[in-house]
Write a structure and sequence with these properties.
CATH superfamily of the largest domain in chain A: MetI-like
Radius of gyration of chain B: 24 Å
Order of helices and strands of chain A: HHHHHHHHHHHHHH
Mean pLDDT of chain B: 87
Number of domains of chain B: 2
Shape of chain B: flat
Largest interface: A-B, 68 and 78 residues
Number of domains of chain A: 2
Number of strands of chain B: 0
Distance between the termini of chain A: 23 Å
Largest sheet of chain A: none
Low-confidence stretches of chain B: none
Oligomer: heterodimer
Shape of chain A: elongated
CATH class of the largest domain in chain A: Mainly Alpha
Largest sheet of chain B: none
Helix content of chain A: over 70%
Mean pLDDT of chain A: 83
Structural class of chain B: mainly alpha
CATH superfamily of the largest domain in chain B: MetI-like
Number of helices of chain B: 11
Distance between the termini of chain B: 51 Å
Low-confidence stretches of chain A: 1-9
CATH topology of the largest domain in chain A: MetI-like fold
CATH architecture of the largest domain in chain B: Orthogonal Bundle
Helix content of chain B: over 70%
CATH topology of the largest domain in chain B: MetI-like fold
Strand content of chain B: under 5%
Chain lengths: ~325, ~280
């Protein structure tokens, strides 16, 4: 991804928006169309119960038919596809309605909402989003700090470089999330629970991108610059502070963006085994009880969080690079 | 307790050997580059074993490596079936479909400037999203079998792959394109002779990122429902039975599979993009 983002030409905002808008609108239209065949069976069953006559009259006959064939034979009866109670694929407006109902509406009008009870409702996505966000932040801070420290160690010690770095690279190829349930359960059994176990997974996931990126960044000053520091008789600490760390800032931000996205994934996956709130718990609960709209709403909140976090780091990056004179 | 104290000299010896090799004259040799991390890994394993046994850590919290190895050796058939279900059926098929679809989409997108400008920022955006979250939905749609896992993998690898391929297809200089124009090369000829080869480093970058994503998708999707086999299933049920040896053995399988998969793609990359600066020495 890093290769892609550095070379793709980014046109000015005014030129870029219309194509993006066009594609997004096309995708939403496609979504509305896809809702019909996805929900055809359920819709027709409901219509049958309401007394309508359907082309293959019994559900048994319909079971072996493809969704598109059902749609083609009963075009007049599918209006309810977009407003089912438990659709296989909810329509976009249903997701938006659920989003509104489980955030603003729940908090303002709900009995346990913030307006009436003074605390965030545990049925609202605001509450669950904040639970996930807390774990994400804590894990991200721990992981990024440890990553930077280890990278500094690796750059300064050849033994550490030769013994730790290959493992850091290999660990990138391992599906680390597989460890998540174990970490949660093991920490739970020794009495640690709440925020910390999830943060540990987040930290673990965000740790390695930072190590690899920072090692690259701290090594980015070239021979000439290092020689100059050498002629100043600069100490190692001074070289680190005045040359290596400033030079590594672009690399740091590039890996922080990957790290915070990974951190969010870690927090969400970490919420699966212990059902104590958070977006991951919401998704799993939704999948247990067949509440598809609830899963989609949680998914959209997670997507919005990811976008917000990556955007925030991007904004910090632009600011920092501009102040350092590295970007226009 | 004495075993726990033994960990200290073991660490000192391992570290001492590594310092000797790293500071010695042979630190740039091939065997040294291999031996130092290997010694480090073995030392960590030995210390793990000694500390767990010496301090009497219960096996339900952290089993010693010897127990993990014993569990691994005792259940080769079960772990192999899990491997086939999760890695070969779920992850690999999804990986092939997802990456193939992404490359074809990139070729289609590439012909239209409007589509490219519309899809590329979206693809970049989607690549950063926690797509694992779609797992419960896809399990609901495609059932508990490996098909739903493959579907999650398709979604996870599609966007990083698309973004990389689109970027790679644009990575030619005006001079190179002009040369193709002077040869009166058609779009297809330019694609095969110039732009696809030029895009290969980017495509392989996407393929390598996708290997890890594919395994993550296949394993996490099994946490949302699976038949009674598969690595994710094994991990989540063994934790329920507090059989941590089996959990760790499954993780070892996943780790080995991930490393081998990544290494394989890396080797193919070396063969295909031998001309690229990052593959040449010096």
């Amino acid at each position: 991804m890093s290769v892609a983002s550095t070379t793709s030409v980014t046109p000015r905002r005014g030129q870029r928006l219309p194509p993006v808008l066009g594609v997004v609108l096309a995708l939403i239209a496609l979504w509305y169309v896809a809702v019909v065949p996805m929900n055809a069976r359920e819709t027709l069953t409901q219509a049958e119960r309401a007394g309508a006559i359907i082309d293959p009259p019994t559900a048994v006959d319909r079971r072996d038919m493809s969704s598109w064939a059902l749609v083609a034979r009963n075009p007049g009866l599918l209006g309810a596809s977009w407003s089912l109670d438990r659709p296989r694929l909810p329509a976009p407006h249903q997701v938006v309605t659920e989003l509104y109902a489980s955030t603003i509406d729940e908090e303002i009008n709900g009995r346990s909402g913030i307006v009436q009870s003074g605390t965030l409702s545990n049925r609202s996505l605001v509450y669950h989003g904040l639970v996930t966000l807390n774990a994400t932040f804590l894990g991200f801070v721990i992981g990024a700090t440890l990553g930077v420290v280890l990278a500094i160690g690796i750059v300064h010690s050849r033994v550490m470089d030769m013994s730790v770095m290959p493992w850091a690279i290999v660990s990138q190829t391992i599906p680390i999330v597989a460890l998540a349930p174990m970490i949660i359960v093991v920490l739970y059994s020794v009495g640690v629970q709440g925020l910390l176990p999830k943060a540990v997974i987040s930290a673990y996931l965000s740790f390695f991108p930072v190590v690899v990126g920072m090692v690259k960044g701290l090594r980015s000053p070239d021979r000439m610059q290092l020689d100059l520091m050498h002629t100043y008789n600069a100490s190692k600490a001074r070289v680190l502070w005045a040359l290596r760390l400033p030079a590594s800032v672009p690399y740091l931000f590039a890996s922080l963006k990957i790290a915070i996205a990974a951190s969010l994934v870690g927090a969400i996956v970490g919420e699966l085994p212990v059902q104590k709130g958070g977006l991951g718990a919401r998704m799993l609960a939704g999948s247990y009880y067949g509440q598809t709209v609830q899963i989609w709403a949680a998914l959209f909140v997670a997507a919005a969080l990811a976008a917000l976090l990556v955007w925030a780091i991007g904004a910090a990056e632009r600011r920092a690079l501009r102040r350092m004179g590295m970007a226009p | 307790m004495t075993l726990a104290w033994l960990a200290l000299p073991v660490w000192l010896v391992g570290y001492g050997i590594n310092i000797a090799i790293a500071r010695g004259p042979a630190h740039d040799r091939r065997w040294a580059r291999f031996a130092v991390p290997a010694i480090f890994g073995l030392t960590v394993l030995a210390i793990w074993e000694l500390l767990v046994r010496g301090l009497g850590v219960p096996a339900v919290i952290l089993p010693p490596p010897s127990q993990i190895a014993a569990t691994f050796a005792a259940n080769p058939e079960m772990l192999w079936r899990d491997f086939v279900q999760t890695i070969l059926k779920g992850a690999l098929s999804g990986y092939a479909i997802g990456c193939g679809a992404a490359v074809l989409t990139a070729l289609a997108v590439d012909r239209s400037e409007y589509l490219r400008r519309g899809l590329l920022p979206l693809g970049n955006f989607m690549a950063a999203l926690p797509i694992v979250g779609t797992a419960p939905i896809l399990v609901m749609w495609f059932g508990f079998g490996w098909q739903s896992k493959a579907a999650v993998v398709v979604l996870m690898v599609f966007f990083p792959m698309l973004v990389n391929t689109v970027a790679g297809l644009r990575d030619t200089t005006a001079m190179q394109r002009d040369l193709m124009t002077t040869y009166a090369a058609s779009w297809g000829q330019t694609l095969i002779r110039l732009r696809l080869p030029a895009a290969m480093p980017f495509i392989f970058n996407g393929l390598k990122i996708s290997t890890t994503l594919a395994l993550i998708g296949a394993i996490v999707a099994e946490f949302f429902g699976s038949p009674t086999l598969g690595l994710g299933f094994r991990i989540s049920t063994s934790i329920g039975q507090l059989d941590l040896g089996l959990v760790w053995a499954s993780i070892v399988v996943a780790a080995l599979a991930g490393t081998a998969f990544f290494g394989l793609v890396g080797q193919i990359e070396k063969r295909v993009t031998f001309w690229h600066g990052s593959q040449r020495k010096g």
